[in-house]
Amino acid sequence: MKTSNGVNKQKIFSLKIGGYAGQGVKAAGLMFAKVATRSGFNIYDYIEYPSLIRGGHNVIQICVSSETVTAPSQKTDLLIAFNQDTVNKHASELLPGAGLMFDEADKLDISKVNKKVEIYRVPFAELTRESGGKKLMGNTVAIGATIALLGGDLEILKNLITDEFKNKGAGVVAADHKAAESGYNYVKENFSKNVKKNLALQKNAPAKMIVTGNEAVALGAIAAGLEFAAIYPMSPITNILHTLAAYQEKFGYIYKQPEDEISAINMAIGASFAGARSMTATSGGGFCLMTEGFGLAGMTETPVVIINGMRGGPATGLPTWSEQGDLRFALHAHQGDFPRIVLAAGDAKEAFDLTMQAFNLADKYQTPVALLIDKNICENDQSFPFFDISSYRIDRGKFITKKQDAYQRYAPTKDGISVRTVPGSGNHFIANSDEHDLIGYSTEEISDRNVQMEKRMLKLKTCAGQDMPAPIIFGPAKADLTIVSWGSNKGSILEAIKNYKNVNFLHLTWLSPFPTEVVKKILSRAKKVIDIEANYSAQLRGLIKEQTGLEIKDTLLKYDGRPFSPEEIREKIDILTKVRNRTKIRNRT
Amino acid sequence: MPTLADLSTPCSPNWCPGCGDFAIWAALKNAMVRQGWDNTNSVLVAGIGCHGHIINFIKLTSFEGLHGRAIPVATGIKLANHRLNVFVSTGDGDCLAEGGNHFVHACRRNHDLTILIHDNAIYGLTTGQTSPTSPHGFHSKSTPAGNIDEPISPVTLAIASGATFVARGYASDIPKLTELIIQANDHQGLSVVDILQPCVTFNKDYTHEFFQKNTYYLGNNYDRTNREAAFKKSLEWDAQKIALGIFYESNKPSYESQLPQLAEKPLIENPLARIEMNDLFKHFS
């Protein structure tokens, strides 16, 4: 794609698969994604679905490139349509030369599709029947056909099928192999002239894993030595609990499904009080219920990690769509003041790293750590080289399990952190939700209150000094435009600014404590600044003003649940850098 | 083994003179001395209400949680370290109003907890409002014209919800209550002791005299293994027909005993060491 400011040399191939919920669209997409990474490519996939289990319209987009790919794309190079909705909603994304694949037996109306789009009629259902497979194997036929069309390796697909289905029995594997072959052969026989090279094997590419942010959080927790998790199911974080539940016996931790989110956070607090590394996870609505427990952890100085996977709010909102509307909520939830550490990940790898770090921070500062991720991170897949945890050290902070003479749980210290212990150690103490003295006995004395409040809040200052890193700046040090953002926008912004030499990007992952001095320095020196976020009220912009006194005038905001695309960010960059773009300019602010 | 003196703290009880909490406090301390429950093997979790102040008056490591939330905190503690005796002190408002959901689910999961309900059928700390166990027609600051709500029986609810040890005690019979607390803790699984106690300041219906006149202990002929009969018995609340003692007991496996992760040792005794992740990462490739 060309823009006036530069040329994007990266080639990204975008496959989109659409169908009814229950047709296995996501599974088919993930199968294709794994063939791509096993062939040496990088992928990013993006899934859209409504909040129901059967019917409705499901679509997955897989972007494939030999370089890192971090965002969805507005264009589609090949569209696989399992239903009419897919044609109606997505055919406009097909540029001349792109392809549309479907089964003629589905009698889809393609009269409105651009005539320069290549049409591939592949009889998914008939080939599935001939393979002796069940109806869902139509997906495997389609993926076999796609691999053939893109010049991919059928053996890689067959090996993947063996890996994924071997515990379902040899019969299932054989039928699936046959389905994949039949789709593959059909394209080779009928569309040999159209075969491309997008999936031609990349040599010497490193081994990659494909994870969603949810899986990355679960893996990060396991790597950090998780001992207890209580999580009530809620979109979009449910796959955190699925992943944790699956591996609990192998790694020895406990995942417990509680009766509600109130119980979830209180169980996690109880387990942590008893000495276990503990976490919970939820979305905004569940975090509402956790609000009282959030402050309880702060008051009793009990470590706990809370993951908030944000979706569109308020109330039930947009259950299966993304938003970054909980920033202010996480910063202010609960009555009164207590030290809260609030972090936000920009992609699955950051979610993994920050989850591991959150456990150390919670233990070290004996306070709740909230990690915000948005639905786009929770549920979209991205490929990464295997995560490296060699530099991670489990740090439990000031923590004793043996009896200590004259022990005082809440003794004031220079850094605000007292020595923590556990019940059963022989040390007497009280974790008290009432204001308390050095032992934990309830008190309403002025001096006790002041000492304890100041001790607790001092921990945040200590944390800012000892653990908070400077935020990351992507792009050139000097730029005509500085983008400020957080969360999953990172991927689309990075994709967008590849085209520009004069645009940089300040990505914030620490929200409390806040890197005030560095942000102030960067933004006060910037020529022009734009704040990009997925919420109505520009919550990060407000936070920056509150912390630095600097007001950012330009914003690119959305709250429709959809991710930012690199294309719409480029349009905005072009407007602000006053360069006329040949394509139509739309101001979306 | 602790002595009574070992259990004393610098704090003096702030309950009203004559409050049933004094007797529950005494019974719990007696049980601790008799059984050797101390800071090496036991923990107390309390909710919010007059009962919750107990954490200041017993030198036992405690967690005073939020109103209604003592049970989930206790559940987390038990899962993290199942060797601890985990006691929950909760009130009728704390346990059955704000915390009703947690109570029902803890019962059905059969966690090995000992739940002591300080049941005075009134909100005392907020100066006298109707609670979930206040009788129909009860006059209080929140029901000046008489309570329209029907009361809930904690014993009935516990049996229906799946608790495997359900008893009712009377606060001022300290020797018998001590015995009940010990039996409840000995039981493997979820134990509930609904402890009838007067609120001398705000509840003029359920007085010491009322309980002394209208309660009796279940005799040796009572079959505490019959769940249906126990359920029926728990519904009786008439003049001189309020039963005390163990209503129901069964030997179902506790939640903790069914977790393979806890088969060898408590969760917190596993060393936190570097975990080899690459095999797990391969599942995602």
Automatic annotation (TrEMBL), chain A:
PANTHER family: 2-OXOGLUTARATE OXIDOREDUCTASE SUBUNIT KORA, PYRUVATE-FLAVODOXIN OXIDOREDUCTASE-RELATED. It holds the Pfam family POR. Transmembrane segments: none annotated. One of its GO terms (molecular function) is oxidoreductase activity, acting on the aldehyde or oxo group of donors. InterPro entries: 2-oxoacid/accept_OxRdtase_asu (IPR022367), PFOR_II (IPR033412), Pyruvate:ferred/Flavod_OxRd (IPR050722), Pyrv/ketoisovalerate_OxRed_cat (IPR019752), Pyrv_Fd/Flavodoxin_OxRdtase_N (IPR002880), Pyrv_flavodox_OxRed_cen (IPR002869), THDP-binding (IPR029061), Transketo_C/PFOR_II (IPR009014). CDD domains: TPP_PYR_PFOR_IOR-alpha_like (cd07034). Keywords: Oxidoreductase. One of its GO terms (biological process) is response to oxidative stress. It comes from the Bacteria. This is 2-oxoacid:ferredoxin oxidoreductase subunit alpha. Residues 220-445 form the Pyruvate flavodoxin/ferredoxin oxidoreductase pyrimidine binding domain.
Automatic annotation (TrEMBL), chain B:
The keyword Oxidoreductase applies. Residues 199-263 form the Pyruvate ferredoxin oxidoreductase beta subunit C-terminal domain. Transmembrane segments: none annotated. Residues 49-195 form the Thiamine pyrophosphate enzyme TPP-binding domain. GO terms for biological process: cellular respiration. Its cofactor is Mg(2+); [4Fe-4S] cluster; thiamine diphosphate. One of its GO terms (molecular function) is thiamine pyrophosphate binding. Keywords: Iron, Iron-sulfur, Magnesium, Metal-binding, Oxidoreductase, Thiamine pyrophosphate. SUPFAM superfamilies: Thiamin diphosphate-binding fold (THDP-binding). Pfam families: PFO_beta_C, TPP_enzyme_C. PANTHER family: 2-OXOGLUTARATE OXIDOREDUCTASE SUBUNIT KORB, 2-OXOGLUTARATE OXIDOREDUCTASE SUBUNIT KORB-RELATED. This is 2-oxoacid ferredoxin oxidoreductase.
